[in-house]
């Protein structure tokens, strides 16, 4: 996809040259970073706090398609997806490592685009890039991100803390990233059949952005703190609402009741899903990649949350014997299923 | 390379099934691990110590060739290579995350082999496996390891601490991993030309193991502590002695003199290099993958180290103006060059 002539050559630059080139604009801003790139390991200081670690692998042809994903967006998303896991522990993300495997055919300015997206995410979220690995790849583009953060022991929130009667809440709205993906896939097919037809994504910015440029919900963590609400359990929505609430119920050894009519779905997500002949609720339950936060709170916290436009109460936690059910708009109970996203089925 | 029939199918198992299956034998043994696999992030407690983080990407066709690398060895090596970076900071490795991207054609028992090698390394080195990501790969096998450790502020050793007059020391011996690789590559070529000829690696166990199953030098870190020696600078030998000493000199803004005759080379490495028409010293300087520790110490520590069979003094640190030179056996001075290993040149 790239014009490779007249471009700086990775082979000539070499691994150390590429690392120097890419990292010269990396600035360290976090008090918890003692030493970033440039030694065998980064050195961090979380004096007294718990250290949080999470890691993700993003592989070309599985997690992204370079035919419609701009590289800067990809670098940005790779970081967001990973930071989201730290926020889901009610922690503060403070550092990442960013590793890439790429073909020597990849032009330098394409690598720069990817890296600039990662750095933009770091700047925006107050996170230092402290290391990584840069390697040739014999096949496609490989991205591996590890995020590091911290939290006080008493604020760390696990999946396992949900109690009977707790309210189930979710931030933002769901299903948009999945419907945005359907739109991008359709335009790709049209383009491949007839390259003269330009992609028609007009008026669909919101759901296309949900797919290409998700934002981890650091703001929700800060909002909950300012409201004095500590979730009893929390997880980020990467595989779809159904899969995530089942993780919380399993880890907490509880059941749940979700109400279909309460699930927040943006009108554009709703209408576009309908255009594709998809059930918007199914997109929210099983679509994934929304990177919203799903959490449970004590009923006593309801008054603090009820007027927050970005948080929706969608159900409650039950005793385990009650099972895990979705109450449909017509009042029927459907057992929740983690259809989620089975990457192995796609290859 | 694998017989795929009658084997448990990754597609049927799915991502969560595979993770459950692989991680059911993971035991947590480290006091610093609060929470391992099973939440959005691992939770660690380094109360008062610095946190160390390092990460490596290993890609099929670049870093390993599955035609002669047994999967269990590969899992073991992937972990060792990464732990080595934590020891090179004079730290204690305590946790890793282990991520894999693999084709759905990969049979389950092959994944188990890979994972069992990683777990064996963890057990042997007293390290907890606390997370990772498991994904399908559209191409080859992808392994990403992040290692986490800790050190007291005053014991953390950077590349930048070498002072004029410090002695340059290296653990073990050098060049073996590279010569072992030449042997394996030769046997692969012979096998590809005539599959009836079995590999002839008899009597070459040591250098084949140096390539396939390196051991990070945790023992050297412990030895130095017991001797009361704190290195002024340290790095692990992953890209070859020349490249590593240049990293130390650059970070410390110093020069160095290395003595060819002092460089420790095992007789089997020496003889096999000669058989291949290679200069054993060049194998030590530029071969890489030995995962020994290269460090500088104060001259006053010489008496504590001189009788240690596993540590060799190979030179000393000079003022920067003296440059970075190798004194050959014949007494000539050659400027050191970081030929190292340019992965981009291999693709």
Automatic annotation (TrEMBL), chains A, B:
GO terms for biological process: thiamine biosynthetic process; thiamine diphosphate biosynthetic process. ATP binds at residues 115, 132-133, 159, 238. Residues 163-319 form the PurM-like C-terminal domain. Mg(2+) 3 binds at residues 40, 85, 236. InterPro entries: PurM-like_C_dom, PurM-like_C_sf, PurM-like_N, PurM-like_N_sf, ThiL-like. One of its GO terms (molecular function) is thiamine-phosphate kinase activity. Mg(2+) 2 binds at residues 56, 85. Mg(2+) 4 binds at residues 40, 54, 85. The keyword Transmembrane helix does not apply. Its EC number is 2.7.4.16. It comes from the Bacteria. Mg(2+) 1 binds at residues 55-56, 133. It catalyses: thiamine phosphate + ATP = thiamine diphosphate + ADP. Keywords: ATP-binding, Kinase, Magnesium, Metal-binding, Nucleotide-binding, Thiamine biosynthesis, Transferase. Belongs to the thiamine-monophosphate kinase family. NCBIfam families: thiL. Reaction mechanism of ThiL seems to utilize a direct, inline transfer of the gamma-phosphate of ATP to TMP rather than a phosphorylated enzyme intermediate. HAMAP family: TMP_kinase (MF_02128). Catalyzes the ATP-dependent phosphorylation of thiamine-monophosphate (TMP) to form thiamine-pyrophosphate (TPP), the active form of vitamin B1. This is Thiamine-monophosphate kinase. It comes from Parapedobacter indicus.
